[in-house]
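Appendix B. Chain record.
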Amino acid sequence: MGKKKCDCPKGAPMWMVTFGDLMSLLLCFFVLLLSFSTMDPAMFKEVSGSLTKAFGVQRDEITFDIPKGIDIISREFDPVFNIDVVLEKIKSTIKLELIKGEVEVEALEDKVVLRMKDEITFAPGSDELQERAKPILDNIRTIIETVPADITVAGHTDDSPPGIMFRSNWHLSAARAASVAQYLLAPHTIIPERIAAVGYGDTRPRFPNDTPENRARNRRVEIIFLQPKNPDDFTVKPLDEKGLLEQEIMPTF
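Structure tokens predicted for this chain:
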């Protein structure tokens, strides 16, 4: 077999080809170093996550709504439970009701307690919400949707007999708490796991049950904003009117 013919220019030494290849490789190497040195960690994380989902198992889902994007800011920077922030949101949202005295709010060390008077929420001996309480609860729902807190709805009564509809004040207070919780969850804009309904009967009076005025103060429903048990894992995920996660709806393939 004959010798391989060189493609280099006539008269050029053989070492120039090797040298040119070496320079090209060095140029590529330093370009790669430069690109990695200026890499945005947040962008890299987002891209790597997208690739992981793209090569993972996909499922076909039927949807009748326009696909929505993922809220990256709210997902990566979840708000933190703060007593002052919760208190300020409550005061700004139901300012008129606070002025009228229909609602009371109290900030404690680890929770915020919002109290609704019995005369606003329920008729005597009944667990059916009155119409005048519903606009207030609608405003409270908007607070719950945006505040990273666990919610406890607590029903309280005085020491008077509950009437013929309920066997005891325990049953009456629990039924009233459940009615408020169900109304808050009715539009399906709050994850149900965030809300608990509790009935205390007449076991936790705020005032002695010795006058009609004090008994009226003890009949109340409390909506308590609590620090989540696992704040690092807690995220506020607003739901749409169908109960779907508004921030997690992805296009189907």
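Further analysis of this model is presented in Appendix C.
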